[in-house]
Amino acid sequence: MVHTTRGKFLFYNVDAAVGAGCPNQRLDVLLVQYLLKESNKTPGYVEVQVGAGFTQDAMQISGTWDQYWGGYLSNFENTLQRRGRSIRKDGRIDPLVGGEVFGPIHHEAYAILWLNRGYLQLRPSDYPRMSEAADCPPELRPALKVQFLQPL
Question: How far is CA 5 from CA 18, 26, 95, 121, in A?
Fold first, then answer.
């Protein structure tokens, strides 16, 4: 994450859960799709598994959650877990609430933080001003939820 002058970390959050059976509010889905697509470009992080239509070109940011995006998310979770990262494989992106990095029941890091980290790793200069990035979905720009987190 990016440190601010107050020693906190900047990150982008959703308002409600995204994934199968979740509220899937349009702006939250746009953020997750954008972060997931960029995280899948990050070298050595997570890569799109080609097959069954799962290609980088097929990752169309639409604001609508579907089976393909569910597949991309599943691949993301599986890859991070195989690489020894603390992430819950539940096919959803929950909002980080109250500054807690780990879920109260599963005690694993929230996936929204891993998505943020992937984007930051790929595009460190764009991360603090994501809304100004040329490829940021226009509808998402004014609605980005920038939050700050105490360091662990």
Answer: 31, 32, 24, 20
The SS3 of residue 36 is helix
91 near 70, Cβ under 8 Å?
A: yes
Q: CA 123, CA 17: separation in Å to the nearest integer?
A: 25
Reading the chain (152 residues) residue by residue, the pLDDT tens digits are 444 445 667 899 999 999 999 999 999 999 999 999 999 888 878 766 665 556 667 788 999 999 989 989 998 998 898 888 888 889 999 998 766 665 555 557 789 999 999 999 999 999 999 999 999 999 999 999 777 776 54
Token code pair at residue 118: 């992937």
pTM of the model as a whole: 0.87
Domain tally for the chain? 1
Domain boundaries, position 129? 2-149
